Recover the amino acids of this structure.
């Protein structure tokens, strides 16, 4: 009996000491299960050019020079060599490319970062376990869902951070071998995403402050060589100083950078994002003042890397407006990592063990609330993106257009060639439901303030496809029923639509127009053309909510003429009316 009590106490003692790690592993496992479950084997946007077109061109190359040229061809301002190599390796091993596995491989970068945070921490074993729990809660949630279930974003946005952290960790050891490894990892970061080149200047500073000037010279030369190798393709993407003037340009870049850094704790508010961005900057200054770089050079350098990334992003994307930094989910990973570094730095720079434990317990509480809120508010984003891509493939199979790409005609060609070449196999996503047109008694009276947009209007010899979103200004979209009307000179039709989730519409209008939940504002129509008489029709949107019935004329027309033909009208996707 006494022995049983002793064993029970021993077991309870072990559980008490290990429960933060066990809970962390559960959080990480749930996150990766969500990535695997919500990913879908369908290319999205950049995936067409970065992977499918790259592999198609690679099949026709026989010389090493041509192969290297294709591998190092820039994509916008990025040299994404490493993501292409991952896709190439998958293709060579499996015989085809699968975007679900690319998403999972990309997301594994976050696990690498978490392990490095744990291994590089200077805290004792007890405090380190709680720090691991706090960071797991901070990082493993769906706030940046684009960067986990979009292959290009996953492999570039996430792995550039992992390579940067690995590089800082290796170089911080001080040995020649570790320095060489850190330099190689910095090169990998450079050729993973554009901001990866910022790792080298930070390594240079590390070597200078450590008094290792010969290594610093080597890093400086390497940085100059890579910068001039890349600059011809990156300078063209910078904002123009002459158009704005120096001071307005500086203010624009500062606003964008602070918004970018504080976006993860902004709650959709631009002012809050700027304020939280200031918190990161002030925290970095404070950690510099207490010489945190001498305590943990890896985490300190990673914090500086996040700040430098925000500045570089403002130089390249600042002209698009601060909303781009605020609502683009894949960029929030930088903001999250910056806050993780800041928190770890505050805890480690405190010499009082009791104070460290108090900070960690507060961190567990705050990070837990943040993680739960993120899952609550953003969990709908994951099925939304999966459905969005499934819809794009369905309508491509039916109407031959409207893939999720800025240039659908180019995406259509790449998709057809990739399927024909066996590089990519189409997943089974179903054909989707067809809507039926009903006679409309009269032309509805246009009333109410309906905010709307038609994004895709595709007419083929068999189908009419319409996609867009609509909501009543000042009201939430929950419970709304949306119909599309076609009004011609002789015939009038009303077509009930299929509802589509639109979290992006909610994100944008919540920030700029203080709107509520607009997730259910999306609609889609897939109709057989034979149901309509020939004629030219004006397209309207009718919205019903309870006893309220509102109508708006979109100003768009579609010509259902006699005979068989194909005509596509591709309206660029937009979240603004």
């Amino acid at each position: 009996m006494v022995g049983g009590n002793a064993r029970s106490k021993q077991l309870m003692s072990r559980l008490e000491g290990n429960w933060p790690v066990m809970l962390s592993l559960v959080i990480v496992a749930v996150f990766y299960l969500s990535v695997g479950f919500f990913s879908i084997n369908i290319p999205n946007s950049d995936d067409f050019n970065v992977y499918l077109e790259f592999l198609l061109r690679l099949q026709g190359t026989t010389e090493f020079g041509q192969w290297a040229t294709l591998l190092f061809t820039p994509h916008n301002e990025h040299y994404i060599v490493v993501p292409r190599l991952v896709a190439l390796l998958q293709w060579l091993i499996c015989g085809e490319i699968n975007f679900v596995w690319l998403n999972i491989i990309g997301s594994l970068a976050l696990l690498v970062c978490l392990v490095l945070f744990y291994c590089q921490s200077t805290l004792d074993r007890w405090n380190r376990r709680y720090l691991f729990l706090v960071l797991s809660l901070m990082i493993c949630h769906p706030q940046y869902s684009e960067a986990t279930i979009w292959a290009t974003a996953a492999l570039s946005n996430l792995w550039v951070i992992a390579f940067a952290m690995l590089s800082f960790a290796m170089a911080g050891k001080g040995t020649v071998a570790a320095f060489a490894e850190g330099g190689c990892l910095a090169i990998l970061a450079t050729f993973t995403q554009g901001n990866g080149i910022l790792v080298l200047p930070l390594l240079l500073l590390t070597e200078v402050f450590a008094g290792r000037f010969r290594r610093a010279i080597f890093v400086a030369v390497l940085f100059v060589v890579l910068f001039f190798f890349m600059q011809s393709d990156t300078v063209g993407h910078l904002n123009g100083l002459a158009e704005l003037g120096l001071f307005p340009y500086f203010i624009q870049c500062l606003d964008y950078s602070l918004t970018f850094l504080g976006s993860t704790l902004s709650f959709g508010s631009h002012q809050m994002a700027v304020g939280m961005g200031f918190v990161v900057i002030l925290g970095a200054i404070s950690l510099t003042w207490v010489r945190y770089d001498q305590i943990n050079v890896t985490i300190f350098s990673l914090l500086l890397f996040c700040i430098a990334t925000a500045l570089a992003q403002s130089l390249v994307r600042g002209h698009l407006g601060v909303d781009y930094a605020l609502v683009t989910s894949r960029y929030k990973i930088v903001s999250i990592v910056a806050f993780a570094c800041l928190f770890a730095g505050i805890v480690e720079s405190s010499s009082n063990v009791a104070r460290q434990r108090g900070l960690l317990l507060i961190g567990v509480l705050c990070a837990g609330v943040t993680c739960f809120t993120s899952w609550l508010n953003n969990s709908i984003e994951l099925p939304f993106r999966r459905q969005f891509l499934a819809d794009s493939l369905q309508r491509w199979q039916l109407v031959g257009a409207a893939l999720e790409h800025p240039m659908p005609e180019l995406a259509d060609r790449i998709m057809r060639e990739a399927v024909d070449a066996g590089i990519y196999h189409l997943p089974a996503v179903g054909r989707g439901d067809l809507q039926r047109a009903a006679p409309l008694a009269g032309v509805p009276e246009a009333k109410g303030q309906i905010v709307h947009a038609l994004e895709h209007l595709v007419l083929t010899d068999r189908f009419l496809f319409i996609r867009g979103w609509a909501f009543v200004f000042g009201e939430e979209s929950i419970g709304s029923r949306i119909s599309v009307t076609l009004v011609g000179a002789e015939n009038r039709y009303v077509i009930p639509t299929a509802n589509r989730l639109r979290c992006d519409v909610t994100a944008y209008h919540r920030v700029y127009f203080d709107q509520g939940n607009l997730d259910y504002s999306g609609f889609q129509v897939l109709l057989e053309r034979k149901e309509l008489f020939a004629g030219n029709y004006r397209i309207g949107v009718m919205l019903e909510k309870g006893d309220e019935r509102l109508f708006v004329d979109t100003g768009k027309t579609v010509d259902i003429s006699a005979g068989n033909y194909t005509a596509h009208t591709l309206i660029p996707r937009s979240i603004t009316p």
